[in-house]
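Let's study my pick:
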Amino acid sequence: MEMDAKDILDFLHAAARSVGAEVTSPWFYFQLDWPAPLRLFVRTLIGSTAATVFAVMMVLERAAMVAATWPSRSYLLAVAAKLALAWLIIRLVTSGIRNTFVVRLVSVMAWLAAALSILGKLEPTIEALDSVSIVLGGFKLTPLLLLNFAVILIIALWLANVISNFAESRITQSADLTPSIQVLLVKMIRLGLLVFAVIVAMGAVGINLSALAIFSGAAGVGIGFGLQKIVANFISGIILLVDKSVKPGDLVTIGDNSGRISAMKTRYISVAAGDGREFLIPNEDLVTQKVTNWTYTDKNTLVKVNFATNYDADPRLVCRVAIEIAAGAARALKNKPPNCILTEFAEAGMKFSLTFWIADPDGMDNVKSEVMLSLWDAFKREGIRVPYPVREIRVRGGTLPVETSVEVSN
């Protein structure tokens, strides 16, 4: 009993130490079911531990120096503490942005502005950037204006991307819209938001659109020549979405490429071949070239199997056996009975064509292979032979000439 009590006491001590270690660990609180913004804040704070510790140390050291000596002697410590706190605040503010490039760009620009403000050089820098200008058609272009335009444009584009992603998630979840309409709406919303973001950014810095009229002729020529294919593919994509000739999920054959449409983009469509490859086909090709859409109005697909037998076989028996094999296929439609016809009395034997329907074109070659293997087994069982060429070489007198004849085994 004493050993049992001691074991129980040791177990309780070990459990208490384990629970205490978990509770005192900062990751324990990080794993709690907190709101998403708070979890993101804590994650960013933990990831910026070095900056946080540095800022705290600078603040404490400056406070100690102010208490012990003249405040002017702690000026550099105050600047370092402010710069570290500014960087920490910027990291916390930009933690909600997912794009790494945008985060770095915004963080560096904001920290430079904060550093100039802390050092008292922000106003002289702004005046210097605004003092250099180029006049284009009555419009004053300065480095400060370009910088402001870039900052506002980045923010506007980021907001437009967030809104478009939210709209896309809502549209794709709607069961009342067809895939083509969903893609069309998403593209129109994205394009409209991008144009609106550029217009807002230009208006915010005071750029008048009429001042850019001097460049409209050159831009028109550039679009007409340099961007001709891009514009053609974009317009072709809009046409495809409106007429619904192809849509995501359709099985298509375009030239030598066959597969299922996995995505429709502004410039091209993506066709998954089923073997790991994806063909990126320009939208213009779908408008100007012949396209076979296996699932345009009906997914039911006719499978055709051509085969031949020798002349010793009964053609009626051959057709009956072939129809039974096709009707017994796992994917053959029961409401559309198969058919087998004799198509030709050829030199090599009788030729037949077996046709049957399946509900979906996916895996059509596999179904065809299964039916042909079943035909082979049935022909073996019924004694029906498939013709094949036989070559005989006869050498007369043991020397040349050699006479070659080709016969067909029946």
DSSP finds 14 helices and twelve strands in the chain. The two ends are 94 Å apart (CA to CA). The CA atoms of residues 22 and 28 lie 6 Å apart. The chain has a mean pLDDT of 76.
